[in-house]
Amino acid sequence: MRALQSLALRFDGKRLAILDQTLLPGAEVWVDVTDPRAMIEAIQKLKVRGAPLLGVAAALCLACIAEGGASHAQLESDALWLRRARPTAVNLMWALDRLRHVLERGGSKDDLVLEAEHIFLEDVLLCEHMAEHGAALIKGGESLLTHCNTGGLATVGVGTALGVIHRAHLQNKRIHVFVDETRPLLQGARLTTWELEKLEIPHTLITDSMAAILMREGRVQRVLVGADRIAMNGDFANKVGTYGLAVQANFHGVPFHPVAPYSTVDTHCECGGDIPIEERGASEVLGFRELQWAPEGTGAFNPSFDVTPVALVTSLVLDRGVISQAELKAGKLALGV
Length: 337
Ligand code: MRU
Prior knowledge:
Elements: E1 4-5, E2 9-11, E3 16-19, E4 30-32, H1 36-44, H2 51-67, H3 72-83, H4 90-104, H5 109-135, E5 143-146, H6 161-170, E6 176-180, H7 187-199, E7 203-206, H8 211-216, E8 222-225, E9 229-230, E10 236-239, H9 242-252, E11 256-260, H10 283-286, E12 287-288, E13 291-292, E14 305-308, E15 315-318, E16 321-324, H11 325-329
Parallel strand pairs: 5-6, 5-8, 6-7, 8-11, 11-15
Antiparallel strand pairs: 1-2, 2-3, 3-4, 9-10, 10-14, 12-13, 15-16
Bound molecules: 5-S-methyl-1-O-phosphono-5-thio-D-ribulose.
């Protein structure tokens, strides 16, 4: 496989490595991922995370073991295990199914490696297209609000929602970004601020519960978020807290846009109710890292994602263009956009 490098994933010609996102922003530690078991663990612990990156990382992992001489049967079985590592982001299944189809068609290991490289390079291009379409929506001087992390750490390109924000910044639109901290694992506070700092984009961190005040005071002109799975009717799953933001944006008349590549659209899900939502352990809600602040034995509810109904979506920014709520409701996704 050719050498490939992104902000959080690299293949140097010999070894596949990920930037351990659980340690950011305190330490930038690259970890070799030598086999599918290690990749599954890294995915489940969110060392590698973000819907598009999950798919690309899993695909490169399978390509590596193909190059290492794994049999067809082993590759099929590892693809199935990797596919189950996390349930909500459909990009993981999408990427692995692309590789499985190569095997099913009788493709060689070289074909499989080539397909994995294509998946990586395609994600870079998809990000560019989303950035172009999304930035066209943003007017000069707008303050934007975003949730979770949707940038170069979540993709192998410039990102989805954060890619749009970056493009608007490069276009000198004088934007300011409010960043939701994104409880419980703080992807906004730890990762999005880290990326915005590097990109020199002006930003302010808020706790998730402060977004409504900013909207009421007219200090947010637009909300941009990512997506982990989009149903055919336009309902979509994203990091927990997105639904609440959408309700607040709707109440205050603030435009609300999910931004995602076509690999996030699931033709098998008719509506949001069909999207499987990952539930994670109580410890993530009871505290953070080694610090537990809730009393021992406290019960906790920890869905990692929530579903936002299409009725709260102003428009969806896809790599292929912007789709309005009316078009989503009319079934434009089902028509293949
Ligand atoms: O649990 P995570 O950190 O993998 O969740 C990530 C998100 O919810 C992102 O918003 C989503 O994957 C889109 S990122 C381009």
